[in-house]
Inverse folding.
């Protein structure tokens, strides 16, 4: 099957990625405000579809509303991918993303019904960035740059499995390390809590693992910057690498801030506005670091595929012939 560039589809995938980013922030606000149990039932909220949006209900029910919107967008994105000529692996990725968003919704409901048990809350917090990565990948591979490359991209991926460029391997490793660091962060955030509130202890072993992860992630990002500025000439990749250095700097500061918030006895009673701001930003910048690394990886894969394929025809709009 051949593939064509569909401007509408690409922009729709971009919008879905944008909405998912907002959803992650909305979710982080639920946790940071200790609002997870403001609505104790599910799938209804206080027995209604639209409860009064007061106190923590604003965050919890608001998060559910944004999640429902993203779920609907993911369904439409899948229908669109099946309606236009798309490569099978892109359609499969769409379906996996749909499965992920449904699972995520169920995990969200289950964690509420069982009073936010740590393992379920950590799973919910860890599947979220994975789903985001899938939607971002769909937005990237439906762009005009990619449409003629999709098949060779798949072949390129096979080569990666056999042993790829050093830069590509490094980018994949960094992306995986940043995801793992996110899971460790989620463990710190959700462990040692009682019914979702931070009133209990900060689990030191989880924090130590997260700090070791921070050290590894920092080392990898600095190494990537060193190697890439010497060996990579693709400006778009270099821009992303510089952005990542900036995000890393901000993230380390926010990490320190999140630690101070977490050990502050006052915020254990009632989350402070600055505390909410700092912990939500730490999660958000962590997600941005992860997707920046993912987009660098995809761009490198694109370049490997481009190299294998040779000159690429001008992207055509749906309905036009090459
Ligand atoms: C469907 C897509 C969804 C995504 C991508 C998503 C994402 C997230 C994220 C990123 C967080 C923050 C985790 C953290 O701060 O560590 C969160 C928290 C939360 N989400 Fe969702 N969510 C989704 C659906 C739902 C649904 C349908 C519910 C229904 C009840 C829900 C309930 C919650 C609750 C209660 C929390 C706070 C958990 C805690 O504090 O332990 N989520 N979500
Ligand atoms: C590259 C560096 C880092 C990355 C990518 C990162 C990422 C994250 C993420 C994504 C979360 C939230 C995960 C979730 O709930 O979904 C988190 C939580 C946390 N991180 Fe980091 N982090 C980094 C460095 C640090 C550093 C240096 C510290 C300093 C001690 C730190 C302290 C914390 C704390 C205390 C939490 C829990 C916050 C809370 O309970 O609300 N992080 N981290």
């Amino acid at each position: 099957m051949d593939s064509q560039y569909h401007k509408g589809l690409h922009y729709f995938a971009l919008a879905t990625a944008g909405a998912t980013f907002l959803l992650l922030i909305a979710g982080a606000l639920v946790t940071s405000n200790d609002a997870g149990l403001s609505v104790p039932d599910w799938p209804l909220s206080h027995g209604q579809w639209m409860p009064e949006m007061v106190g923590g209900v604003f965050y919890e029910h608001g998060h559910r509303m944004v999640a429902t919107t993203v779920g609907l967008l993911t369904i439409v994105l899948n229908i669109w991918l099946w309606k236009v000529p798309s490569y099978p692996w892109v359609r499969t990725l769409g379906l996996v993303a749909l499965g992920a968003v449904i699972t995520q919704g169920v995990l969200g409901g289950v964690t509420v019904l069982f009073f936010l048990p740590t393992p379920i809350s950590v799973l919910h917090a860890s599947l979220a960035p994975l789903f985001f990565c899938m939607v971002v990948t769909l937005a990237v591979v439906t762009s005009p740059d990619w449409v003629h490359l999709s098949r060779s991209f798949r072949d390129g991926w096979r080569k990666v499995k056999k042993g790829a460029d050093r830069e590509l391997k490094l980018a994949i490793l960094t992306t995986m390390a940043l995801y793992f660091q996110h899971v460790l962060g989620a463990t710190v955030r959700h462990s040692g809590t009682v019914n979702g509130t931070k009133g209990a202890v900060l689990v030191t072993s989880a924090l130590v693992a997260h700090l070791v992860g921070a050290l590894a992630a920092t080392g990898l990002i600095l190494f990537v910057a060193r190697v890439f500025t010497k060996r990579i000439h693709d400006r778009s990749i270099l821009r992303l690498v510089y952005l990542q250095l900036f995000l890393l700097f901000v993230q380390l500061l926010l990490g320190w801030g999140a630690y101070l918030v977490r050990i502050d006895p006052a915020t254990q009673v009632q989350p402070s506005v600055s505390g909410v701001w700092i912990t939500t930003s730490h999660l958000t910048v962590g997600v941005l670091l992860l997707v920046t690394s993912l987009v660098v990886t995809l761009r490198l894969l694109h370049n490997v595929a481009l190299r294998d394929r040779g000159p690429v025809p001008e992207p055509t709009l749906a309905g036009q012939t090459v």
